[in-house]
Write a structure and sequence with these properties.
heterodimer, A: mainly beta, seven-stranded mixed β-sheet, 1 helix, globular, B: six-stranded mixed β-sheet
Chain lengths: 114, 111
């Protein structure tokens, strides 16, 4: 099915470890986003990209890095994991005209840092 | 900057009850407005949208009308079902800028 695919679905990391959350979309969307969702806090934008080779910081970028080498893929890298990064992470994508069509979200990655 | 405020939850209703989840927004221009739904263990799904004043978005029995005069986009459903239990997010996007989300409202529908 067309859409946004995130892997893994669950992960437990130890403090100081690193990992990459994968995100891929097959809708030829130029725009892609990473959000984190903390309980009762809504969604906070971590990083976004408006096309291959272009990325920019969102509201809460510290402790994360991204890359966008292709239109389809937008991985999120966590370096030196900290307990504060325990969260559910959502990747999303959209057409440039996002005010007309909204976003398509992946099913999320639940990350626990212990 | 642009922002969205939605009613705090949780909201608990009995099956077939009427649902209203309030959403108000702050924007400098004329944003598009959205409602997303998140079922347990899943990502957000677009439920409905409205792109200009007085537009009514509707889907799956849910409705919301874009009220510019009151800067509101309240979500309504006439008769909720247990399967409607989820978290509902109001959101806006202005001038093709990033989507701004409300904090979410958890709805539980009991049989």
């Amino acid at each position: 099915n067309a859409g946004v695919t995130q892997t893994p679905k669950f992960r437990i990391l130890k403090i100081g470890q690193s990992m990459t959350l994968q995100c891929a979309q097959d809708m030829n969307h130029n725009y892609m986003y990473w959000y984190r969702q903390d309980p009762g806090m809504g969604l906070k934008l971590i990083y976004y990209s408006v096309g291959a080779g272009i990325t920019d910081k969102g509201e809460v970028p510290n402790g994360y890095n991204v890359s966008r080498s292709t239109t389809e893929d937008f991985p999120l890298r966590l370096e030196l994991a900290a307990p504060s990064q325990t969260s559910v992470y959502f990747c999303a994508s959209s057409y440039e005209t996002r005010n007309l069509y909204g976003y398509t979200f992946g099913s999320g990655t639940r990350l626990t840092v212990v | 900057g642009d922002s969205v405020t939605q009613m705090e939850g949780p909201v608990t209703l009995s099956e077939e009850a009427f649902l209203t989840i309030n959403c108000t927004y702050t924007a400098t221009g004329y944003p598009s407005l959205f409602w997303y739904v998140q079922y347990p263990g899943e990502g957000l799904q677009l439920l409905l949208k409205a792109t200009k004043a007085d537009d009514k978005g509707s889907n799956k029995g849910f409705e919301a009308t874009y009220r510019k005069e009151t800067t509101s986009f309240h979500l309504e459903k006439g008769s909720v079902q247990v399967s409607d239990s989820a978290v509902y997010f109001c959101a806006l996007s202005e001038d093709n800028n990033d989507m701004r989300f409300g904090a979410g409202t958890r709805l539980t529908v009991k049989p």
